[in-house]
Amino acid sequence: MNLLKKFKAIPVIVVTLALAIMLTACEDSGTSNDKKTTNKQLEQYQKVQPIPFFDWSQYRETLISIQEAQAKGTATTSFFFNQGVERPIKVCSSIGYPVPTTAQLTSPDQQVDNHEAVISQMEPTGVYTGESSGTYVVCVVGGKAVPTYWEGYVQTEGGPARWDDDQRMIVNTGDATITVDTK
Prior knowledge:
With 183 residues, this protein is of the alpha+beta class. The chain folds into two domains: 53 residues; 115 residues, no CATH class. It has two helices and nine strands, in the order H-H-E-E-E-E-E-E-E-E-E. The chain has a five-stranded antiparallel beta sheet. The protein is elongated and about 85 Å long. The termini are far apart. The model has no long low-confidence stretch (mean pLDDT 81).
């Protein structure tokens, strides 16, 4: 008798499996259609609105100049602010531009065994980085380069500067230590 009940359940299982396969095929078909439609739309945009080509880029030149100043340790002045507070809580002569604590020397991801899968990669310090609002600034204190960590807002000027209470703003007080070439 139990054997008969088992045989009666087989058609139910077969029908359930068939429905699951059909639903999966429909979902894959929908995804495939979405992909085709998106690719077709991109092709259209590329025909009628191609990516512009420029002989020179001020935007790129500015980034190159900033990166050179970061790499060469250009003399700067950094101001540390608390959100919602007008005056800086600290000002220091600094070297280079602020470095976010999330900056990495190695790729944050690695490919797994020649597959398309990508996983997080450990930093040389043995840790994995996360999100942070922290910033490192190298302040010059008593002639020494002293790293300072800050989680608030930092503004760095490319040269000597100071906070002016009367004007309620940062004022540059000397020649710039970094300039950007313009065309």
